[in-house]
């Protein structure tokens, strides 16, 4: 019987390799019990809520918006699309995804469903655990690609990012790294929209037709959560059926 399939979109949390946003606390693991000495193995974990692969709650940037414990579990399970902008980001570390990029994707794959998780694949995941991930210049400015503000405004006003959608990326966040105002984050993090950050293994996520499921602990008044983010791939026959329905008419002819 054909079944749903899960793929892991999260980095391994490891003190030796986990890239941490500048100024955030480092990721630390301390072994406090061993099977040999204590009869069980236990580690003490120290980390911020936005360490490694994680999701952010609306209240992370906007006072009065929902925090992690105020979201519904269904806010963390969303249809997902993946927009491949690796070539443009390789040529320009400050690249901002445009409305034109999104419309080009839709001409090939069909309209992005409302209330979606829109993920950009910048290629930055390959830099994980190295100084090239933060990509900070001599003046202390970070250079990472992100969403252009106009593109996110378009996604919001057209319903593609609806009341419970969101953005995802394999960088530290949806903003271009050089934008210290976090204008994109403040727009994304409204209503019940979330942000998925530091994603991995995006080559395994199809451009369209999948879902994302966000795990992780829910802290009281949490700004988000470290997470195992799963890509959920429907059975092949259902996947093909939905792809055919969403594909532009010109592509079906």
What does this structure look like?
The chain is an alpha/beta fold. The protein has a single domain (5-14, 50-248), classed as 3-Layer(bba) Sandwich (Glucose Oxidase, domain 1), CATH 3.50.30. The chain has helices at 35-38, 86-91, 99-109, 131-134, 149-157, 183-188, 236-246, 249-252, and strands spanning 5-8, 28-33, 42-46, 54-56, 77-84, 96-97, 117-121, 146-147, 166-169, 194-197, 210-214, 224-226, 229-233. Strand 9, helix 6 and strand 10 form a beta-alpha-beta unit. It starts with a strand and ends with a helix.
Helix content: 10-25%
- The structural domain count equals 1
User: Quick one: CATH superfamily?
Assistant: Putative cyclase
Q: What's the tally of helices?
A: 8
**Cα distance spanning the termini:** 31 Å
Give me the strand/helix succession: EEHEEEHEHEHEHEHEEEEHH
The averaged pLDDT comes out at: 93
**CATH class term:** Alpha Beta
Structural class: alpha/beta
Number of strands: 13
Gyration radius, in Å: 19 Å
Low-confidence stretches: 249-253
Largest sheet: 9 strands, mixed
- Provide the CATH topology: Glucose Oxidase, domain 1
Q: What percentage of amino acids are in beta strands?
A: 15-25%
Query: Based on the structure given, which CATH architecture is correct?
Result: 3-Layer(bba) Sandwich
Outline: globular
Spatial sequence of strands, sheet with the most strands: 1-13-11-5-7-9-10-4-12
